[in-house]
Amino acid sequence: MYVPQSNSTTEGQATVEAGGRCWSWNLSFTIFSSFHELQLLDLSSNAACFQDFDGLQRLTKLRYLNLSENSLIGNNILESLGKLASLEVINFHSSSISGALQDSAFRNLKKLRELHLGSNQLNGSIPPSLFELPRLEYLDLSGNLLQGHIPITSSILPLSLQTLKLSSNNLNGTFYFFWLRNCTMLKKIDLSKNTDLAIDVNFSGRVPKFQLRALILSGCNLDNSIITGPNFLGTQRHLQILDLSNNNLAGSLPNWIFTNEANLVYLDLANNSLVGSVNLMWQYQSNLQMVNISKNRFVGQLPTNISSVFPNLTVLDASYNSISRYLQPSLCNISRLAYMDLSNNKLTGEVPPCLFTNCSELKILKLSNNNLGGLILGGASNLSFISSIYLASNNFEGALPNNLSGDLEIMDLHDNKLSGELDASFWNLSKLQVLSVASNSLTGEVYPAICKLTGLQVLDMSANKFAGSLPNCTRKLTLDFLNMSSNTLSGFPSSFFNSSFVTVLDLRYNQFKGSLDWIQYLSQIKLLMLGGNMSEGQISPKLCHLQYLNVIELSHNRLSDIDDPSFMYNGRYDLQGFTFSTKGKLYTYGRSFFNMMFGIDLSANMLSGEIPWEIGNLSHVKSLNLSNNFLTGRIPTTFANMTDIESLDLSHNHLSGPIPWQLTQLWSLEVFSVAYNKLSGCIPNSGQFGSFGAESYLGNANLHSLSQGSRCSAVPSSVEEGDVEDEEASEDPILYIISAASFVLAFWATVAFTCCHSLGQHLILRL
């Protein structure tokens, strides 16, 4: 940007505009101090850093100031503007402003019409002086950290107010719409995402003088009065945007929403508890473009003439309801439809083939979790327009066409009844990033043509009947997630993973043999699951070079030893609050899982010798399963250093000696099993050990508790590292029974696909 220096020309300059240019440098407003006639200053969207605002105070004729999408360091800029009585528009949206708003900063701005302060880090309360500005038309304080009540009364509110945006703050108290009754110019109100703010929409029988264009009250804990009985919304004939989502509203759809007089363009009622038939909705709405009624309890069916009812619809989301019967072919006649989500309903029948081929604007189609059937993709092979297809968990049949083409980026077909071979030799899907055909009945080889899909990042072919070897891909794979588990695959070339980007690899329950030396090529791997194969030999110390590895599962193989326990160190592991329990409850795991957890499953192998004491240095490990091996010696006391561990399974080995009393310091431990070893001494009963059932200790003849009449000595004051006490503290009777023998394996088996690819669905898991 060129900033003119002070001279006779610049002193008379009225406008300086540099919006949209990229500077990425620091700037002081003193360079504008000689621009005495300056009225408009636009430096928006420059990623510039401003930190000296004293020069602004000399721009006494400034009417328009736009510094949005920059970095305004410090919190004194608003105070610097207090003397600029000529200001009419201030736009500091997304400018990293922090601190509290001072009441004195706005008292002199009597000409101010617009104040844009959204998407910053402002805190404290809203100053009352903002609502005393007589000409204020537009006020945006959304996306900040403001708290307290909204300082409005009907006596001071500016009658010129048109837009009020206070969303995404921490406001509380009660907002009375009655305060707004005299604001004849009011067009838009957005109070969404203030969960502690009560909203009162009662006008006591009066009709407000305004006609809103937009009302956004998402996530405001609204009561049912907003949709039941007479209220002012029924009088808003010009309403175009109505968002009442995420409020747990109950009851039926209000009649006033769908009337011949309605001008709605955008309707969002998602994530409530609304009931009744969607048939009430099917009234002609020429303006309606977006409808979201997802996550409610609606029943009914789509009308046969839906294209006539909503001719200009672009978005239809009715997912997570109980809508039944058939998909109507007239959906294909909605010429502007771009997004349709009818997943998680009770739809039956076949999908009209025209949805795959004739809808030129349709980009995303979601029909998963219904009872739909027929030939997969309606027999279509040329998908010219659609970019994302979700047809999972239905009853689609047949084989995938050999000549698929189009601009597909995501194709999720898992859990159907697909059969035949998957041969991509003639596919023309250069943009395909995600392909899931898991849990079908596909057969044959994994053909080399799959390597032609060079943009593929997620590939899930698990739970089918594929056999043979993985192909020898000569091209560099871009895969981030690969799941080939639960097939009968038997081998792959070592070059398959050369220079691999894969971060999640699941090859469990196949017939792979040989050593695991090829693992060293997985330089980016975070989760590695190879259980249930026939791998043999030692666990190579080369694993220690895999610096991103968070989870390794090698159970049910023929591995014989650990060459070097140092492979279990993970310097990059970072715990950020992931929590789970293991006592029969429901748990949700999101996509950020791999930044939060570290687990090891080496169960059901041929490991022998003593457990390396170094394993205890894995202070952030959540799950460790060494069960069903041939391990001997004592349980390392260093296990007490695994302070975050929640599941520890050492059962079915040949371990001896006592249970270290130090393990009672593991306050997060919820699953514990040392069953079927050769342990002796007392069973601890303090800490979490008071909740472990008898099944945790079965098959250890010399283990006993206080109830058996034995006496245990007190815990010594100090213990040498690596030493274990021969006598343990006494124990009360065990109260609960749990079984941990297969917890870790079951956990990883279920979580792998859901947590790591761009289909991105959360998982509900019962343990």
UniProtKB/TrEMBL annotation:
Annotated Gene Ontology cellular component terms: plasma membrane
Primary residence: membrane
Keywords from the named record: Cell membrane, Glycoprotein, Leucine-rich repeat, Membrane, Receptor, Repeat, Signal
Matching Gene3D superfamilies: Ribonuclease Inhibitor
Alphabetized InterPro entries for the sequence: Leu-rich_rpt (IPR001611), Leu-rich_rpt_typical-subtyp (IPR003591), LRR_dom_sf (IPR032675), RLP_Defense_Trigger (IPR051502)
Subcellular location(s) per record: Cell membrane
PANTHER family: LEUCINE-RICH REPEAT-CONTAINING N-TERMINAL PLANT-TYPE DOMAIN-CONTAINING PROTEIN, RECEPTOR-LIKE PROTEIN 14
Family recorded in the similarity comment: Belongs to the RLP family.
Protein name as annotated: Uncharacterized protein
Taxonomic source organism: Urochloa decumbens
Taxonomy of the source species: Eukaryota, Viridiplantae, Streptophyta, Embryophyta, Tracheophyta
